[in-house]
User: What shape does this take?
Amino acid sequence: MKNLIPLILSIITLSAIAQNNKCATDLIIENAIIENPEIKENLDKFYSEFEEYKTKKQRQSTDSIRIIPTVFHIIHQGGNENISKAQILTQLRVLNEDMRRENADTINTPSVFSPFGADTKVEFKLAKIDPWGNCTDGINRVYSHTTNGASGSNGVNTAAYWNSNNYLNIWVVNSMENSGVAGYAYLPNTAPTPYHDGIVILSSYIGDWRTLTHEAGHYLGLKHTWGGAAGESFCGDDNVDDTPIAYDANFGCPPFPELNNCEFGDSINGEMFSNYMDYTSDNCQNIFTKGQKDLIDFTLYGNTGTDGFRSNLWSEDNLIATGLSDNIILTDCLPVAEFSENNRMICVGQSITFTDASWRGITNNRSWVFEGGTPASSTDSVEYVFYNTAGVFDVTLEVSNDAGTATVTKSERIIVSNDWGNLNQNSYQEDFENPNSYYQKWHVFNQDNNNSWSHYTNGGYASNNCLKINNFENSPNEIDELISPSYNLHNFSNVQLNFKYAGSSRNMDPSDKLQIYVSNDCGKNWNLRGSVQYATLTNNGFQSNEFEPNSSTIWSTKSISIVSTYLSDNVRFKFKFTADGESGNNIYIDDINITGNVSINEPEILDFHISPNPFTDNCTVNFLIKEDKFIELELLNLLGKKVQYIFSDNFTKGNHKIAINRKGLNKGIYLLKASTKNGQIIKKMIIN
Assistant: This one.
């Protein structure tokens, strides 16, 4: 309801959003106005012209349905935020039912408000032709760190963008800059740039939700029912005549009537808390009004002689260009081949689950190739692959339909390790002087294929070589992981991981961080053990130019204690770097060493392992002894009870292999125990 309270621009930053303010539209626009006051003029002009539109009743016939070409940009890093097409289609159904007043819960609209309910005559449809003239299903999947901490300034809008004059861009993200925010949209003519114009929404609110209905209302010109845009608050003006004045947002589902103490024209029926532009629960929202439809019409039509701000979207020319005209018949889209896996690092004998995540076109045929895996190939959408040999392996997926074939190969995707360390020494030190040692033993996970860890040859702590993370050109929240070789720390105690680091920043408030993890299961699971971050990591202070190490005095030392729980015969370390981006400069590490007390009494049985494991019929037990020993092998169940005696004998020093047949044993998990006179060692054995 319109009131006459003057508007006062509040300078409020996005960080001021309360946790229960699920929509950040008002504050996003206020921030834009602070940066560019002309946006406030645009906003005032838009609603002033709408008042003229209402007064002159220059209203267009709206018997036809206005189709809005829509693209969902799924911004993801391979997690749950990479939502399915089914979720998107469910969300579109909910959105269009709400827009057309075809939602089943219209019967819940309070009877005094029901006569004001309107079919907005707007439908959102997935585009079928992209801006470059290619076939699309209106879903664009982009791997980007900007899915985290999304805001008007974190770059999510430029990670993927289709011309906002032709498409409604909906960016689906993993998290917002501020918790409690589910989404936001720019009102017409308020986006700082065309790249910002559209809707940003959490992936967890895509599906059977009404958050997108609310944000689509903003996109089409609707304010919150209490006003709220550009500094308005408490009994503000939403420029709609048939929505009763509202004091502020409502939450949950208030009882009818929800009265308030607003000075100007409080309705005896209270606030319209069932309106989609309030903050009430989804099960409480069920109405757009005729007055709100008028505002949507104005956004889409404009005044006499002036096109509406979003009039081009639903024009016939644009519907033809985006593939949504009734006169266009399109064929299937060529799919984009893509897959995911539940892990990239495992021990010999373990399995990885691969899932076909191909998109854009329907997949009629599929072919996997799993280098080093069992099975080596498959045509299933989900496949469980065992790796019984240590190594680094490629994975290939080929998908096809009537439009053609697409293939993706991810080189060195899977790292399979023996369950004993590659390095068996009394101490460990890596100064990166030998580049071959780095390239052969260390692994880099570069999630976004941008700047990452590399071998640096122009300076180190006490030499010419070290490792560098090129952070001068990194973007915010980019993650790069450096993974060490596997070490045998079975006989160590009081272990410390030590390394040198040198860094710099381009401002006085850096937020880069380096986290150090440990794993004793071949890298399948990781535990955080320490970190160096912020000003501590950038120990050389501010530098506007690219930072390079030029002296041994610029390095600092980080020492991390490793608890005994992780001191096994297969230990790896991971250095996880997360970039600030806006203020970052290069970071270097060098002189990585592991220190501790080494037990004189090393195990009597070394390199004890089973291959393959799991197995179906036969396996081989491998072990090494450094002197002649009597050894007995027994098979136990998980409760420690002996299931089968296998073998016992006197063995000479050296490597030995013993074949085991599963005859008489059921499928399941067992414990293989090897005993000497002075001790024993136990390994898990799996029979398929």
